[in-house]
Amino acid sequence: MNSPPSKEHWLGTDDQGQDVYSRLLIGTRLSLFYGASAACVALITGGLAALIAMALGPVTETVVFAVVDLIRALPGILFALAFVVAFEPSETSVVLALGISFAPNFALIARATYLQQMARPYTDAAKVLGAGRLRIALVHVLPNIGGALITQFAIILPRCIVSESVLSFLGLGVSPETPTWGRMIASAASFTEDAPHAVIAPILALSIVTFSLALIGDALRRRFDPARRRIAQ
């Protein structure tokens, strides 16, 4: 237990004698999966719901964005903590909690880009041809705002991964035997002096992956930002 890195165990072992490198590989897959799942939930519940609400009219828009403002009033991690505690810690509750907490980011992007696209001539042409507001939103507008939503997805994904790690570190995420990065950090934190490698490895993995994803998100934001493209030209 808590043995240092060696030929048999490249990153050493933890307090239970488990290979840190093997658990780190599994934890990478799980953390990315939970983070991506939460970001997908946020995209669907935020972006798509906001787009449909805008198309259905001012009453639906008012109701949906009142809920959005209510969620935004709380810090994301605090909302996720309350949600997980209310519905018992599990993989599903963590994904839903993070997805709902980040949904307002997509909702605001969807509303802004929807209003922008509805002022374009192609939407007027669709109206003349008899298309309803919902059909215009889903068939014509949605493909044209996909770039903005994908950019936001890339920005939200690393935040979801970090938030999942925080919940797991606090013991409110996935089950204790599941080797996500947060669980690995929480388990090894008590043995930092005896086995610093066991806590440094998941911290470095979390930092490198989230930083890399943040750079990708920033690059996509610059790529799809019309204002920046005009300045570059």
From TrEMBL:
Q: Which organism is it from?
A: Microvirga brassicacearum
User: What topology does the record note for this protein and the membrane?
Assistant: Multi-pass membrane protein
* Spans traversing the lipid bilayer: 32-56, 63-87, 93-115, 136-157, 199-220
Q: Which residues form the ABC transmembrane type-1 domain?
A: 28-217
Task: List, in alphabetical order, the GO biological process terms annotated in this UniProt record.
Answer: peptide transport; protein transport; transmembrane transport
Q: Which family does it belong to?
A: Belongs to the binding-protein-dependent transport system permease family.
Q: Where in the cell is it found?
A: Cell membrane
* PROSITE patterns noted in UniProt: ABC_TM1 (PS50928)
* Chief site of localization: membrane
GO cellular-component term (any): plasma membrane
Keywords from UniProt, A to Z, are:
Cell membrane, Membrane, Peptide transport, Protein transport, Transmembrane, Transmembrane helix, Transport
Q: Which CDD domains match?
A: TM_PBP2
What is the protein name stated in its UniProt record? ABC transporter permease
